[in-house]
Design a protein that fits this description.
- By secondary structure, this protein is mostly beta strands.
- The protein folds into two domains: 2-246, no CATH class; 261-358, Cytochrome c-like domain (Cytochrome Bc1 Complex, Chain D, domain 2), CATH 1.10.760.10.
- The protein has helices spanning 25-28, 127-130, 268-277, 316-324, 346-358; strands spanning 2-3, 11-12, 15-16, 45-51, 71-75, 80-86, 89-90, 92-99, 105-109, 114-120, 124-125, 146-147, 149-154, 161-163, 166-167, 175-181, 187-193, 196-204, 211-217, 223-225, 232-238, 241-246, 252-254, 303-304, 312-313.
- A six-stranded antiparallel sheet has the order 4-8-9-10-13-23, with no helix packed on it. Strands 16-17-18-19-22-21 form a six-stranded antiparallel sheet, with no helix packed on it. A three-stranded antiparallel sheet has the order 15-14-20, with no helix packed on it.
- A hairpin with a 5-residue loop joins strand 16 and strand 17.
Length: 360
């Protein structure tokens, strides 16, 4: 969200980051001046920090955040304000970012009291916020950390939690009450909504790019979870308890600092690499086994039947459409909405097509 600057502090379990180059949090137990900090599955890194908005809806997802106004920059050297109006930076303050190694990173918002987004294969580049280790300076404007990795889940619409069929969005602004760490060091967040106190724990799901959410309420109400374009599997539901798994509803790659390398020539090997890094491996088998999505084995040139579309033979156009707009056609026997849309380079699409053609 657009916001004002806060002091250059970052707290981890009550300890400030310290300048000890070359030390790792998972092994040492404290932060260093490494601008690419990482935790692990055994020792998650929990960071209270600014985070980027990555296009979240201000009206639906972030309605309780204030919006800054454009203002002129002030020069301490000249003592004057610039004539040009500068828009506020896009950042969410006082969020909690958690990293469990390459398996999972996520952001939980203490203002909205909800999960904002989740990604894998990276965490946050803190250079904008912590500064350059060689100079000790950070950016004076636009200091929000950069997310890097593959985002597979983004919050959509009003607050997804329901109490007795009523959305939390209709109960007023939730009040954050803090978090606790269990024996597994994974945070459990607590907040108040209406007359209820809710806790939520976010964990890696049973397969790649899935999340397990565990809710509990002090009032023993019926809890529900509804989010647009998000596949939800309820594991357990009883008065005051709700355990569920949510599956991907997004697909965006973010880089740390480097510019994205443009692929000039598509190859099967590049496609095979994308099959793994983009998470296709979680739902599309290569051996004919049925998973959340159709197998890729022998798929090219095969006839497909759909829930609400005419049958067709799998060709290059269909594969590209399925990657860009997976909701356009849902194969019979499978659940709609399981696959997020992907925006890739042309050569990346072509590489995936070459790989899929080769799976026999």
């Amino acid at each position: 969200m657009k916001c004002l600057a806060l002091p250059h502090l970052c707290v981890l379990f009550g300890f400030l980051a310290v300048n000890v180059p070359g030390k790792d949090y998972p092994s040492k137990g404290y932060l260093t001046f490494d601008n690419l900090p990482m935790g692990s599955e055994e020792k998650p890194l929990v960071l209270r920090t600014f985070v980027p908005t990555i296009g979240l809806s201000a009206s639906d997802v972030l309605p309780n955040h204030s919006t800054g106004a454009a203002s002129p920059k002030y020069s301490a050297r000249s003592g004057k304000e610039a004539s040009k109006q500068t828009p506020p930076i896009h950042g969410i303050p006082a969020a909690i970012a958690v990293n469990m190694g390459k398996t999972l990173s996520y952001v939980w918002d203490t203002t909205e009291c909800r999960l904002l987004y989740a990604w894998r294969d990276g965490f946050l580049n803190m250079k904008n916020y912590w500064g350059d280790p060689t100079s000790g300076r950070r950016r004076g404007f636009g200091y929000v950390p950069n997310l890097y990795g593959f985002v597979f889940y983004k919050a959509v619409g009003p607050h997804p939690v329901e109490i007795n069929g009523q959305s939390l969005s209709s109960l007023g602004t939730p009040a954050y009450l803090g978090f606790t760490l269990g024996h597994d060091r994974i945070p459990t967040y607590k907040y108040k909504a209406g007359n209820s106190q809710i806790t939520i724990k976010v964990e890696p799901g049973p397969s790649t790019q899935t999340l397990k959410l565990s809710f509990a309420s002090t009032e023993q109400e019926k809890l529900g979870f509804k989010s647009p374009n998000t596949q939800v599997q309820v594991l357990k539901s009883s008065p005051g308890l709700l355990h569920l798994v949510i599956r991907p509803n997004a697909g965006e790659n973010f880089l740390s600092e480097e510019k994205k390398v443009e692929i000039k020539k598509p190859t099967k090997d590049i496609g095979e690499g994308l099959y793994t890094t983009l998470g296709c491996i979680a739902c599309h088998s290569l051996d004919g086994g049925k998973n959340h999505g159709p197998t890729l084995k022998g798929s090219y040139g095969a006839k497909r039947e759909f829930q609400q579309a005419e049958p067709l033979v799998v060709d290059e156009d269909y594969i590209r459409e399925s990657i860009e707009k997976p909701m356009a056609k849902t194969v019979k026997g499978y659940t709609s909405g399981m696959m997020p849309p992907y925006q890739l380079q042309k050569a990346e699409y072509d590489s995936l097509i070459l790989f899929i053609k080769s799976v026999r």
